[in-house]
Amino acid sequence: NAGVTQTPKFQVLKTGQSMTLQCAQDMNHNSMYWYRQDPGMGLRLIYYSASEGTTDKGEVPNGYNVSRLNKREFSLRLESAAPSQTSVYFCASTQGWGIQYFGAGTRLSVL
Amino acid sequence: GEDVEQSLFLSVREGDSSVINCTYTDSSSTYLYWYKQEPGAGLQLLTYIFSNMDMKQDQRLTVLLNKKDKHLSLRIADTQTGDSAIYFCASSYGYSGGGADGLTFGKGTHLIIQP
After folding, report:
1. Tens digit of pLDDT for each residue in A61-79?
2. Cβ proximity of A77 and A66 under 8 Å
3. What is the C-alpha separation between A110 and B113, in angstroms, rounded?
4. Do A99 and B43 touch (CB under 8 A)?
């Protein structure tokens, strides 16, 4: 049971570079989420997709774009990375009741 | 919007009970959760409680909900070194209570176990 799989696990970028964080779930869940975790800040919601074909902004969407490619996959794109986007990024999915299943995270450093 | 508050650190002796507290602001929160995060790992759901419940027990874990005071607690009995982690309180209130619009997390409580 893979659950929620995130790639890559680690990434270092230079300011201004772009990259896409990938997330896939094999639990047939409808809803998927991207969070960022910063020291002392807990987790903050960046974007979410309540169902295939829909995406909505969360608390901190600026500087990010998302694509719900199909029911399984939800990607997060940084078009022009900034040092303020250095963080740990978590993808999650849920079928309902708010019980979210998390991936292991992507640790991103922007220099 | 919703705000969820937790103390940042809790230190307990091995074998004692740990009580981690959380307060939330939105009285329409319908589901409340406790997640555990070990170093370098993602978040693991420990337990959850619906807003129409006062208490839920699951092996060593006891969750108490005081809706009047908007206070949630997690008690871990017989705390072991393996319980050392960050514990997050989270709430949801969206879409049929299913939280389809995401969870609101507290900043997390670091549980430190003393031998």
Report:
1. 999 999 998 999 999 999 9
2. yes
3. 34
4. no
